[in-house]
Design brief:
By secondary structure, the protein is an alpha/beta fold. Helix content is 27%, strand content 26%. The protein has a seven-stranded mixed β-sheet, with helices on both faces.
Amino acid sequence: MRIISGIYRGRPLQPPMNLPVRPTTDFAKEGLFNVLNNMIDFESLRILDLFTGTGSIAFEFLSRGAIEVMAVDSNHRCVDFIKKNAILFGATNIQAVKSNSFVFIKHMAAKYDLIFADPPYDLDGIEALPDLIFSSSLLADDGMFVMEHSSGYSFEKHACFDSHRRYGSVNFSFFKRGIGQ
């Protein structure tokens, strides 16, 4: 696993074997960021990465110039891995927090321009995640929510659904306020 582009381009992220994660493939990550490159200016964004796992997506946003990244995961080893890499990279604008992402959504009051979520594909409640995001105060009014999920889910009927991309077995759904509202 490596960082694809930006100031940390080519740097490896080598998580310990015992992390309970399913990292986004480089192929899917490259596709995701190609889409995002055409939609947003990374250098003005505050990012929230829920169910962050290894922090691969969080570090990709940092590498491309995001001004702040909050990485949230319930596993302390994942959080420790992200903190260790932040020190190795000299990255001071990333914060890793150990928390259940559903609890974090309900209790955090900060505003983010882009929220990315990569929950375990078999996690109970995954279908409610877009509603939780849009009913919370976390997403800026003109913000975007991106969710990675399996092909077993379709969010096309969600009021804020914008588009869907598939890269192999990895699916990304993009949401924005006001799309179908």
